[in-house]
Amino acid sequence: MSAMASPDKKLKGLVAATFTPFTAEGEINLSQIGPYIDYLAEKQGVKNIFVNGTTGESMSLSVEERMTLAGIWCEKAKEKMDQVIVHVGCMSLKDSQKLAAHAKLIEADGIAVIAPSFFKPTTADAVKKFLCEVAKVVPEVPFYYYHIPAVTGVNVPARDVLEGIEALIPSYSGVKFSSTDLMDFGQCVSYSQSADWSVLYGVDEQLLAALALGANGAVGSTYNYMGCHINKLISKFDAGKLDQARKIQFKVQDLFTYAKKHGFDLGVNKQLMNKLSGLDLGPPRLPVMPCPEVHALTEKFHGLFPAC
Question: Whole-model pTM?
Fold first, then answer.
């Protein structure tokens, strides 16, 4: 990880959306972050992380907890991760600005902001104004828009948000696009090409389709424990071996189909990570319910994916 991502240091490849480690009592567990980073780098071949996002339960954390976590992620990632992107989006503009300023102090490689989802912006202009107010606090820090309408309920096309955004946010560097709308995604890729922005896809089970449309990389929760396999998928795609890339993508879809039949959610996903990684990341925080047993899902995973 660099002191600050240089303007020409484009974010690409796999980015793990990290889980937040908690103790059994529900407090943040900083002791697991160092081993977690080592696991990603050494076992999964993943060298970029997106912290305090949806997978990291950011909206269930206090501002102080998010700052503490972000600081430790950045500290432990030095010399081990290429980039650490800190999500700073909140319901409150002031909280987002505070987290953005802190991200600069801890030398994060970039910040990302989600659209607020309680008082929802209903137009692209409203989204852009919110993003702009956060970005201008740290104008030299690379800025990413985090688009996830299924969670926020903000159903404004990402392409509309990108229109003219470079004039409002000179530090704008890309979008984390977590939607199944591949037409909107393709339009984002098309618009971003001339500026060489990163367009990162966030729906793990559809990554291959996004690569075909020009995705520069992907941000996802399953790359925490499937990163080595998805790196192979990307390598096969880049080499033009589409049949082999499809085989890996179909296995991912088989796992998702099986998991969804068994109530797959963040709690199940986190417990699966605990089992597969051997890390002790603890349970999720309420209102997400813990999942005590994922034996069948773990067996399904091992049946689909050999050890890396």
Answer: 0.96
